Amino acid sequence: MNAIAPLSAANAVDCAPVLKERGQREVFCGLTGIIWLHRKMQDAFFLVVGSRTCAHLLQSAAGVMIFAEPRFATAIMEERDLAGLADANEELDRIVDQLLARRPEIKSLFLVGSCPSEVIKLDLSKAAQRLGAKHAPHVRILNYSGSGIETTFTEGEDACLASLVPIMPSLAANAPKNLIVVGSLPDIVEDQFRRLFAELGITNVASLPERAVADLPGVGPNTRFLLAQPFLGDTAQALEERGAVRLDALFPFGVEGTTNWLHAAAAEFGVADSHFDAVLRPYQDRATTALAHQRARLEGRSIFFMPDSQLEVPLARFLANELGMRLVEVGTPYLHRRHLAQELAALPAGVMLSEGQDVDKQLDRVRAAKPDLTVCGLGLANPLEAEGLSTKWAIELVFSPIHGFDQAGDLAELFARPLRRRDVLRV
User: Fold this and answer.
1) pLDDT (tens digit, 9 = 90+) per residue, 17-26?
2) Domains and CATH numbers, the chain
3) Which of 158, 384, 387, 414 has a 20 to 30 Å separation from 369 between CA atoms?
4) CA separation for the pair 217, 41 (Å, rounded)
């Protein structure tokens, strides 16, 4: 059953109604987030409790060589486990013991739940507490669910980061004000933001996650945080329950988004507008020049976002406002109205928004609209390409460095590339 739900005005700007769809979805499960999280948190290991399908998914998504020794693995449910012939908790304890004996460098271990029924029956929270007590203080053991029943694609990162919030050190009410950038970012992007904050005079800055789980930042009433990703609803709520305050802003995609995002922090930390403008002007000018190279190819082209990562709304705002693309439909798995209030207000008037998915109906709308570019998951891209439609893999937008001024041109290039390829093939 699909229904049109009115969207409350954001910042006094009316937004178009939202088409709410509930049907068959085409999206990766939350286990996929392990691929970028294990690269970010360098003292952590992710142990998925799941099936061979889970193992194949992670191996394929990561592209890991068979001889490599990555910081993730799958404790595979065998026939004996599924038949109840083995005690699942004893089996899990045995595997964790073997893993930690073999990999003594592991300081934090995440037990990640998946969707097989026998895994759902297993209380991984209690298992993490039991194993944590056994292996303390050398290893911290946490758990979260990446099950496709509970999470989609990027929500796995949200569940992981939310599991870290309870163990973040507490800061007193009179502690100096600190800023946390929330969301896993490539190291190069994180370093760029740190330099920008330092140039602005904001020095008490940390990240969640940090590159080592052991270095988690403190949180308290004087903590302010900026979301770097729009899909971190549970993490934001957990931080707010501990007294932290979210700074409302656009997300840092393109010149407009990055400027607004940084200004939210600058205003909170008392940075003068004159200093803010002087610091950012060279970065803005360089990014604007980089975008100009792609605008000629993208301006006036139509784009259709199928729901995948929850990045769709801020990316649509960037493409429409800075590159002149025409938004046919902007679909997202979940529309967090409070976190996206400024993004929704910045979208062109009357844009079609959809939340959730009924993939057959959405494909009908794609075929009817014949957009110049369709952003979708891997499972839909090849069939649409076979029908003569150009596509962009949504997953590439999550794996690529796309935040900030220095990445603005690269972000635009990701959308220009499939259109350039189509033009070359037509010649």
Assistant:
1) 798 988 787 7
2) 3-26+286-426 (3.40.50.1980), 30-151 (3.40.50.1980), 178-277 (3.40.50.1980)
3) 414
4) 14
